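Progress against Task 2.4 (sequence-to-structure conversion) is shown through the following example record, which the project officer requested during the mid-term review.
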Amino acid sequence: MRIALGIEYDGSTFKGWQSQRGQKTVQSAIETALGVVANEPIITTCAGRTDAGVHALFQVIHFDTEIYRAPRSWTHGCNANLPHSISVVWAKIVSSHFHARFSAIERTYNYLIYNRSIRSAIWNKKATWDYRPLNVTLMNEACSHWLGMHDFSSFQAKGCQAKNAVRRVSCCEVKKESEILLFKVTANAFLQHMVRNLAGVLMEIGSGLRDPSWAGEVLSYKDRSLGGVTALPDGLYLSDVRYPEEFEIPAPSHREPI
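Structure tokens generated for the chain above:
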């Protein structure tokens, strides 16, 4: 049978999602915990492979097994064998046609920027610090250039293995709450480092160093070497993954980190 899990994690101390020999990763921790519950090795597939230092409010995974456990047993059994920085929120039996990655319709990432002249101890590793006053109006003007279907080659990591860089962005906006800026972007799929590269451009524009039109110019270059600075991973959260209703995947309990 195929089992899906909803997971949240603090990625601060992990070398990303994907298992790597000799490295502490989220996937390795999850598969070890699942193996204890199933009493057999378990291999998982995720909705989106997050990088080192990146967090998740709503990561979705699936795995196949012949071992039956009630959903409650998968959830609580895994959590009993996981570090407190990772939590399985729900588990359910799904159709064999469900695929955590390829069945996804859209994914949403949030990027938090702590905007104060003095760095924060509380938001350390949970938000990226920018000491420069950032103009949210200018940043939202820049975001408008990225809505729709575009070639995002300028925002793609050099080592990205995607077959093409065309993505459809349905939501791209910045809002402010006290000293925190939240950059939200939803797309059918993302390229490696795409959100961090978008955030890097936005912070340059928000600080007044660049005009909002630069966001469109960078997009048109289709050249990563002209694409600006890659923002740190600290403030990045995978916050939502949407699937067709037929799979009845639970909605996230919270879609934003603030």
